[in-house]
Q: What sequence folds into this?
């Protein structure tokens, strides 16, 4: 531990003032972008991240946005430094530049993520970078398909200058305009991003102007040192050892039913943590790959959650105690030309699996599995009012989160890929698009039973008011959110289509490409619940009664999983008979719970597929009946 | 005169009931004199504190014409969860909207995050088989019998309040209105409230939360207001009773008993209204209102004579709070106040707040058990507060204990000396407070340096000079009795009703007739309720605004629309206004991009005549007569303690000039004039401090 946080020319007080200043700058960039962005996905879904970086490209402060973007922006800045610093580069970075790229293998994500970077110069000397990554609703590429390579996914913009010494690069703008479906919107989002990065650069220069370049840079170094010390202290409190865990993804939307194993190894040694992702599946044919930045980000996200979740600013120092082993060519370190459109999906399960690995080591600090999918749909068609193309990135319904050692899981919350991401108001969606939302509700019984119960998923029923194409890419239908320490898994995610003769067609997987929904037909999204924690037989009867009374669980669940006895006349749980039944159940290993809490749909689908040998990975994580 | 007349009644009285103190300000129109009564709040029986305060201010109730009231009862009922047993009637398929919320996780890495907790439990969120479309067509017509049967059932269950939210009620309120009448008919004693009465803006979760909160607090707030009414009637009050809304406008007590949620933040709102009035008397166009108390610092903005408004607030904070979607004054808040604790955290960083020692245990120097040094302790050891003169000497402060705590808990762990530690605590507090000011200025596209800052609240005058310097604000104004400024602001408020109605239309297709009709219906409703209290119609004015955005954009900005744009049906003019506002707030605009309207806003204002502040001609500049002592005070610029003159505010007279460094002390606060700054007393007794450019 250091004596005080001062370093070089920065006193502890100056360091704290600079720290407050950096957080305020990134918050301001964030609100500037949000308020000016065109796309719903930037404003409502907050699919963006802003940040400040030191002259070497290390993260100084990130305003999220997406938690998963702790790595990609820094990697982009470093690549730009290398690009313009190369001996054969015809030009250098200079004041007034705004740099741009959407290179998916740099950002680790998909082409929709456009990153803008302003190098900040103080009296000619580079003193940092202001950066903004945001999701453009459309970047060209094919619709209604599973892409098999990056070239099908739209326009690729290498590292270029969109402003050169203050002058707009009109050629590049023309190329972009020609390659995207709704150029006005893309240009609007681009303007918003330019405004955000410029405001960040301006404010950072003000900070430098007020306190001096050396003080600010020394303060930044001190902040990183302190974040490092904090994280190391937390890692030291984890028992040394090698911890393993495994899970799997349903499939890659090409080889249907072929499970994609996710195996992780976590090594704790003293104050350092190593996460080894060598045994994560190799990159897949369908568009679920992500780049190395995403693979590293998975480890960073899990690491931050377990060491310093609320410490700000998010900076490079927080991650110095983390080593990542990640060979190229896995699903989270894919190489060109792997398709990347759904980059965000698998990493969430990787994060959850890392956390699961550490459960035996730090049971009080971990969380059971969550629904781990954005639950997005993508609709496109002609709007009946004007015949124009509409693109609706919908869904984002939220799902269940896992229970913890001291608390039930939270219900209906966005998955770990996203943070301050909002769903869209039903009243807004219906005003803009030809849909009627029939229902948006909690999904009863979906939380895994346990001493602490997993959070509930949601159900959203959306009827087509006119014909459109329906796409969805939901994962984790089969690999349900796991419980911990005897807690049951939550329900898996589900996608259902309701036809006009009112038949509900439960899709075997959660993936649909360009299915035409006719007026009156509906799609139904059911997000999974969180896993439970501890044996359900240990759950006190008061919360079981409350959940029954409030309708969060059904009587069948209470009887089947919680082993309670309900007085038929009053509907009240009988404490004495419950105690007796529970002790009997415990003696028999809690068998009743296992028999009664099965997801009939998933069971049916897995039985159908089992003969083809497609259900299990070699780790055999889940028996046919999860619980 | 515009309100109900009583010739001999010349007082107007404002009572601001806060968590700790009840502040009463009384203004006598006959003499132009103000008097003050500060008393401890009486939580068991709030009205007792009010009556005591009014007595302390030596004001007779029979001689009072206007009684203005600000209260924290609404917000406390929510924060303490002490509201009524409440049910919610909502559209079939949507009872969980209130619990699902917006699904966001602001603490993105915190596995132990928590969501908001609804005020109405799930089993009391009851679905009605009805449905409106976004255009206001009844896709499923509501059946009255279904509602009536449910209402009877709720009565049997002992439900005290019912909130009603149906989807798209902003487009067609027929179902909500009918459901409300049915419930009222079946359950006459129940508090019944429908969402469209409070908000006609889209966003079903926010509207649900708003109407549910109104129902939840309704019975208690209504009971409280009735009690106050009865009590002051017994004291022979015969004038008019108004309550302050979060918009800074007043509404009559009957109205307040129905739309209770609108009085959420009346105290802070009144402070900004007071700032606006102060701007008027000093002929300032714009100012920042800066309010610093024991636990928080707040900032609001007056721009070109108008208070800047916002459309919603989260009660209980952004992460786990409940949203309330009503027009209110845009006030940003940070957890930095006199009681904020300075702490060296593991890793060796110095943090100030957001933990607060509050009033108990309080700062170390209060000797009430506080062990951790606070901002107040730092001010004391630096000489800015005097140990024997706090609250007029009523409370002795322990300087030695404060210094010891700063040494042991801050200076030693950081390896710096205690003076630097104390000064550092104040500098850090200053930067966090300056960020709350930039949140209402810079983030709105405004430059704080273009504003004067009006500072009040117990701790505001101590810190305003530093915050101003940090933000290059040229002028700081400390009004008379800064500790009573919110109550004073209530005296300066007008009657006000605000309406917002969602009306999605591309501007190019906007039918001016229809728009006119909507504005008229809002304006008529507003006039109708105000006419009872404002006899002269000429004193009722209306303002029109619209939330607008570029087509395809999600977030809207609120644009003031002068009436002539409507008279002239000037679509291009509206677009131009929008472009201007967008450019100002966000740094760019798009002439060529089409715009669309999201919501129409109407504010109807019933102007009351205001107390005329007493004006005293300026006298000689020498402050000698007001000098009360000299003592050692630390100043950063010189980096040392300086023997500093201390003046008594009550002896300062208009025209007096004080060169910093200096202190001005009054009953509940101390103003610091920093080195290089110059204070001058205005004709109204304000301390106007010109801040030296650093």
A:
């Amino acid at each position: 531990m250091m004596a005080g946080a001062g370093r070089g020319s920065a006193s502890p007080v100056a360091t704290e003032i600079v720290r407050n200043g950096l957080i305020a700058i990134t918050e301001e960039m964030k609100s500037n972008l949000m308020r000016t962005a065109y796309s719903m996905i930037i404003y409502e879904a907050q699919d963006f991240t802003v940040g400040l970086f030191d002259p070497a490209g290390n993260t100084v402060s990130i305003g999220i946005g997406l938690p998963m973007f702790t790595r990609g922006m820094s990697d982009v800045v470093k690549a730009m430094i290398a690009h313009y610093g190369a001996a054969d580069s015809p030009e250098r970075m200079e004041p007034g530049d705004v740099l741009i790229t959407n290179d998916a293998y740099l950002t680790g994500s998909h082409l929709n993520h456009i990153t803008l970077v302003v190098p900040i110069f103080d009296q000619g000397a580079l003193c940092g970078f202001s950066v903004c990554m945001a999701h453009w609703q459309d970047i060209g590429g094919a619709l209604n398909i599973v892409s098999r390579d990056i070239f099908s996914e739209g326009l690729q913009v290498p590292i270029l200058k969109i402003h050169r010494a203050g002058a707009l690069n009109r050629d590049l703008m023309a190329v972009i305009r020609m390659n995207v479906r709704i150029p006005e919107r893309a240009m609007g989002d681009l303007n918003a991003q330019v405004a955000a990065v410029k405001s960040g650069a301006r404010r950072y220069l003000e900070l430098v102007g007020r306190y001096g370049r050396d003080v600010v840079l020394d303060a930044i170094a001190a902040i990183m040192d302190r974040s490092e010390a904090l994280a190391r202290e937390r890692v030291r409190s984890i028992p040394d050892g090698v911890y393993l865990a495994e899970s799997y993804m349903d499939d890659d939307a090409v080889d249907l039913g072929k499970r994609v194993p996710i195996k992780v190894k976590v090594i704790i040694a003293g104050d350092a943590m190593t996460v080894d992702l060598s045994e994560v599946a190799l990159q897949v044919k369908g568009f679920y790959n992500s780049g190395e930045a995403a693979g590293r980000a998975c480890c960073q996200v899990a690491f931050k959650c377990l060491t310093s979740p609320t410490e700000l600013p998010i900076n490079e120092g927080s991650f110095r105690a983390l080593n990542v082993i990640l060979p190229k060519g896995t699903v989270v370190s894919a190489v060109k030309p792997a398709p990347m459109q759904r980059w965000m999906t698998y990493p969430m399960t990787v994060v959850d699996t890392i956390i699961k690995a550490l459960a035996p080591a730090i049971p009080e600090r971990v969380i059971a599995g969550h629904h781990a999918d954005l639950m997005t749909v993508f609709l496109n068609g002609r709007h009946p009012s004007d015949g124009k193309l509409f693109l609706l990135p919908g869904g984002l319904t939220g799902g269940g989160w896992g229970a913890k050692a001291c608390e039930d899981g939270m219900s209906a919350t966005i998955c770990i890929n996203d943070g301050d991401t909002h769903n869209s108001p039903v009243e807004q969606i219906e005003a803009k698009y030809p849909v009627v939302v029939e229902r948006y509700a909690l999904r009863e019984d979906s939380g895994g039973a346990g001493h602490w119960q997993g959070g509930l998923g949601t159900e959203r029923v959306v009827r087509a008011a006119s014909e459109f194409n329906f796409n969805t890419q939901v994962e984790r239908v089969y690999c349900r959110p796991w419980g911990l320490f005897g807690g049951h898994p939550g329900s898996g995610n589900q996608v259902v289509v309701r036809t006009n003769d009112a038949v509900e067609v439960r899709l075997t997987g959660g993936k649909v490409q360009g299915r035409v929904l006719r007026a009156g037909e509906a799609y139904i999204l059911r997000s999974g619940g969180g896993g439970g924690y501890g044996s359900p037989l240990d759950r006190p009867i008061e919360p079981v009664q409350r959940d029954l009374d409030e309708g969060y669980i059904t009587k069948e669940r209470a009887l089947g999983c919680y082993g309670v006895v309900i007085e038929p006349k009053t509907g009240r749980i009988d404490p004495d008979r419950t105690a007796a039944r529970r002790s009997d159940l415990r003696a028999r290993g809690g068998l009743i719970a296992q028999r009664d809490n099965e997801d009939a749909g998933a069971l049916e689908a897995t039985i159908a597929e089992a003969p083809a040998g497609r259900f299990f990975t070699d780790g055999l994580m889940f028996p046919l009946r999860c619980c | 005169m515009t309100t109900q007349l009583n010739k001999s009644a010349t007082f107007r009285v404002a009572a601001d009931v806060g968590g700790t103190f009840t502040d009463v300000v009384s203004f006598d129109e006959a003499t132009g004199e103000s008097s003050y009564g500060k008393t401890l709040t009486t939580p068991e029986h709030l009205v007792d504190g009010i009556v005591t305060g009014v007595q302390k201010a030596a004001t007779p109730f029979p001689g009072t014409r206007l009684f203005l009231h600000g209260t924290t009862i609404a917000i406390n009922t929510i924060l303490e969860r002490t509201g009524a047993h409440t049910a919610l009637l909502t559209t079939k398929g949507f009872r969980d909207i209130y619990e699902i919320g917006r699904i966001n996780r602001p603490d993105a890495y915190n596995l132990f995050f928590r969501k908001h907790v609804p005020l109405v439990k799930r089993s009391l969120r009851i679905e009605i088989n009805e449905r409106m479309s976004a255009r206001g067509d009844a896709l499923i017509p509501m059946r009255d019998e279904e509602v009536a049967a449910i209402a009877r059932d709720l009565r049997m269950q002992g439900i005290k309040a019912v909130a009603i939210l149906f989807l798209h009620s902003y487009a067609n309120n027929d179902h909500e209105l009918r459901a409300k009448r049915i419930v009222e008919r079946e359950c006459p004693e129940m508090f019944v409230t429908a969402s469209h009465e409070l908000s006609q803006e889209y966003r079903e979760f926010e509207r649900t939360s708003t109407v549910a909160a109104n129902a939840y607090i309704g019975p208690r707030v209504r009971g409280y207001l009735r009690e106050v009414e009865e009590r002051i009637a017994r004291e022979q009050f015969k004038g008019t009773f108004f309550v302050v809304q979060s918009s800074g406008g007043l509404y009559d007590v009957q109205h307040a008993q129905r739309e209770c949620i609108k009085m959420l933040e009346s105290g802070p709102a009144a402070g900004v209204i007071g700032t606006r009035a102060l701007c008027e008397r000093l002929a300032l166009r714009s100012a920042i209102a800066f309010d610093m108390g024991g636990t928080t610092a707040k900032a609001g903005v007056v721009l070109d004579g108008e208070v800047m408004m916002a459309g919603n607030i989260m009660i209980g904070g952004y992460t786990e709070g409940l949203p309330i979607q009503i027009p209110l004054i845009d006030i940003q808040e940070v957890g930095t106040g006199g009681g904020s604790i300075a702490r060296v955290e593991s890793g060796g960083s110095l943090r100030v707040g957001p933990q607060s020692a509050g009033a108990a245990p309080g700062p170390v120097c209060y000797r009430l058990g506080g062990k951790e040094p606070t901002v107040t302790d730092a001010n004391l050891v630096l000489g800015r507060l005097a140990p024997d003169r706090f609250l007029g000497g009523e409370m002795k402060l322990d300087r030695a204990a404060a210094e010891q705590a700063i040494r042991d808990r801050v200076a030693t762990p950081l390896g710096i000396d205690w003076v630097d530690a104390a000064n550092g605590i104040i500098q850090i507090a200053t930067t966090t407070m300056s960020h709350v000011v930039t949140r209402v200025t810079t983030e709105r596209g405004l430059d704080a340096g273009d504003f004067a800052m009006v500072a009040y609240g117990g701790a505001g005058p101590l810190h305003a000079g530093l915050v101003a310097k940090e933000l290059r604000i040229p002028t700081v104004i400390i009004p008379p009795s800064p500790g009573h400024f919110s109550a004073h602001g209530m005296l300066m408020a007008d009657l006000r009703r605000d309406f917002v109605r969602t009306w999605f239309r591309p501007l190019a297709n906007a039918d001016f007739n229809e728009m006119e009709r909507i504005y008229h219906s809002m304006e008529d409703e507003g006039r109708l309720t105000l006419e009872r209290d404002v006899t002269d119609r000429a004193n009722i004015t209306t303002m029109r605004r619209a939330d607008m955005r570029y087509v395809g954009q999600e977030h809207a900005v609120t644009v003031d629309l002068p009436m002539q744009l409507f008279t002239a049906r000037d679509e291009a003019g509206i677009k131009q206004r929008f472009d201007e506002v967008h450019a100002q707030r966000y740094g760019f605009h798009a002439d060529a991009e089409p715009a669309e309207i999201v919501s129409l806003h109407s504010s109807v204002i019933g102007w009351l005549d205001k107390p005329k502040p007493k004006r005293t001609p300026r006298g000689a500049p020498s402050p000698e007569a007001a000098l009360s002592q000299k003592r050692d005070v630390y100043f950063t610029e010189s980096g040392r303690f300086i023997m500093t003159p201390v003046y008594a505010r009550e002896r300062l007279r208009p025209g007096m000039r004080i060169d910093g460094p200096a202190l001005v002390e009054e009953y509940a606060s101390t103003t610091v004039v920093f080195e290089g700054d110059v204070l001058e007393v205005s004709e109204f007794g304000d301390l106007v401090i010109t801040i030296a450019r650093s």
